[in-house]
Amino acid sequence: MTIHSVVIQKLLSTNAHLGRRVAAHHFKIYSIGSRNGMTIIDSEKTLICLRNACSFIGELVRQRARFIFVNTNTLFDEIIDQMTETIGCRNDTSWRLGGFLTNSSSPRKFRGRNKKLNLTAIQPPDCVVIFDTERKSSVIQEAAKLQIPIVGLVDSSMPLDIYKKITYPVPAKDSVQFVYLFCNLITKTFLYEQRRLNAALGASAIAKPEIREEVEQLDKIKIVGKDKSYVLPYERLEPASEDATETKQLLDKLVVLKFNGTLGSDMGFSGPKSALEVCNGLTCLDLVVNHIESINSKYGCNIPLLMMNTPSTHDGIMKVLEKHPNKNIHAFTQSQRQQENIEDMSESRILNKTSAQEKLYPSNLLEVFLSLNRSGKLEPLISQGKEYFLLLQSENLAEVVDPKILNHLIKNSIEHCVEVMPTTSGTEETSLPPQEGRIQSKEHVKSINTMWMSMSCVERLLQRSDLGFTSSKFFDRAFAIDTPWSRYLPVERTSDLLILQSDLYTSVEGTLVRNAARANPKDPSIELGSEFGNVDDFRSRFKSIPSIIELDSLKVTGDVWFGTGITLKGKVSIAARPGMKIVIPDGMELKNRIITSQSDIGGPSSL
After folding, report:
1. CA distance 223 to 382
2. pLDDT higher than 60, residue 425
3. What is the b/e burial string over 380-392, where b = at least 16 CB atoms within 10 angstroms of the residue's CB?
């Protein structure tokens, strides 16, 4: 018996040849007659159409195309779910809401009994596969209007106006047995083409050094141990496209999620640290919002900003957001238990009690995304085609949205990444050139609390929430990017406020811009004593912030007061002994000076 005969017998066993009623004129090309008022479908024609459809799907898989699988019959749900899980495609059900493809110009609101869903347009798929071509479904009309190819099952009951819109029709009865066979063929087509694609990538890597480096990089991530991480220098990342349209498409896949769970009590500030005023009346949160809005305005993209607040910070955050009406900002509140976890995590980091893994991946991430999912804000993001989260876990006022990093993650299918900086010990032990990636112990790098996560990674994390997984166990292998100093402007102590409020940074259209007059790419190292730890004390001890453009380091301890118009250069150390007060007079310039008493101000003292 030939393979052809075996396949025909398989089709007959699924009752694919039995139509529902006598065929209309346009369907007679697939029929060989009728019996008892039912059309008999030619299995030879069904087999030919199956081959054409699978060949078309395989060609799209090689091009990494997007698919949407549509089914209106609940009997097929389990079969299709199993298929999409095997081939690695997300089973998108947003098609159940009318206008899911054609509502890009005017987002619609859908109201249910318990919730309201704001649905904007998803990224259009490259192909729609329909298993039950129900006449009442609007998916076919929408896909045809947007000229999206349709692969669908057709039978003798389908009217002509619907039939003409199917690009690759497969004539067969939509029985459970045939749908299972069809899904099995699609799965095998996907897996076969994916293996071919991976093999082609490996072969081309031999001829193309840049591709070979990417493959080797991914291999290193896979073999790195649980107590280590693969650290890639930021300079090794491929530059983002100069085409504004491509950059817009890239940024439209991003969501920024900011944690606002930290109070400013460690700096003597009663409200959330995000509401702390930094410069020119702008708070930390204002600067983050302005940065994202400037990106949206520059590229014409739509990056939403999600605010994860706690009960203790929510009111203060909402007061700041009153200055930013009509912007794509959404705030929601965590539970009190999650707030305690965040505070415990921050304290343990300070006391160095956390494991090396939790220093990179905080243990409360699962609870954060569970809260996001319960708020009803996750599904709309998936429907809009968002693919990556940028998680901001602290007050970092640098330009955190970086198309260069996002492009690298998407291009190399990296699901999670942390931005790190080397510790002193790690820097001393590292002997590799800075332009090469390295496998490094997690003890020798510190996270800057900026993390990237793919949407598929978030979905898997949520699926495992019932199995007792913590996020630190889930991220057993870390990929990290060695972040340059320009991407890290923290607000953790009053010494950080001194840098941000000085002439080293200025606020231009609501965002911080570094003074080009400073030659050193690093910001000066500043240590202020406990007398400056409180924000109010800090402001009272500085009549005006000194000029620090040429400053390398500053260390101040004891009862020290600063006048106006002071300039600090080089290395400066000011230490007031107990019971002694030092006042730096107005207009004073201190360059490479050690001051231990008021009398030292009159004469130079070299370091």
Report:
1. 31
2. no
3. bbbbbbbbbbbbb
